[in-house]
Every structure is written in structure tokens, then in C-alpha cells.
Amino acid sequence: MRDARDIIKKPVVTEKSTDGMQALKYTFEVDIKANKIEIKKAVEELFNVKVQDVNTIRMTGKLKRMGAYSGRRPNWKKAVVTLAPGSKPIEIFEGL
């Protein structure tokens, strides 16, 4: 079994994700091979909260150019985690 810190890479902080925090929805960049069950267990272990639902999205890397050369950023996976009603907010997002 993989460590929870290998599954959850970093939080995604955008306007849309900060608006979702009012409804106890938090967005994370996760390992591309992780499934919803692994993501749920990792969030519950790292932040001591109860997770109600996990939605995942495969994000394709953007096309970037450097002069005449073009390449791609790597593909990544995003997870939107909904906490159970009555749960306390996740501390790392406080003060944003």
C-alpha cells in the first residue's frame, strides 16, 4: 500500500476551488494512478476528516512553445473531495 503523501501531491488553489470550500469541497492534485478509494483513505488519514464523496478528473497537459520548438506539460489528475456534513474544515486551506 502506498503512503498517503504519495497519493495527495498538493492542493489546487484557484478561484473556483476556493468558492467550493464554502460547501466543504476541496481540490487536490493527486497521483495519476490513484483511484477514488485510495484518494478517500489518504485524505482521511492526512487531515483527520470524514470524506463523503470523491470526484476525479484527468487533466491533459497544456501545449507550450519555446521559439520554433513545441512540447507539452505532463498530464495530471485532479480530485475534488467533498467532506461529510458537520466536518471541520481542512486547516491548510484556512486563511486563503
**How many domains comprise the coordinates?**
1
Shape: globular
**Structure class:** alpha+beta
CATH superfamily: RRM (RNA recognition motif) domain
Q: How many strand elements? A: 6
Q: How does CATH name the architecture?
A: 2-Layer Sandwich
Radius of gyration: 15 Å
Helix content: 10-25%
Describe the structure.
- By secondary structure, the chain is of the alpha+beta class.
- The protein has one domain: Alpha-Beta Plaits.
- The protein has three helices and six strands, in the order H-E-H-E-H-E-E-E-E.
- It has helices spanning 4-7, 15-20, 36-47, and strands spanning 8-11, 25-30, 51-59, 63-66, 69-72, 76-83.
- A four-stranded antiparallel sheet has the order 1-2-6-3. It has a two-stranded antiparallel sheet with strand order 4-5.
- A hairpin with a 2-residue loop joins strand 4 and strand 5 (69-72).
- The radius of gyration is 15 Å and the shape is globular.
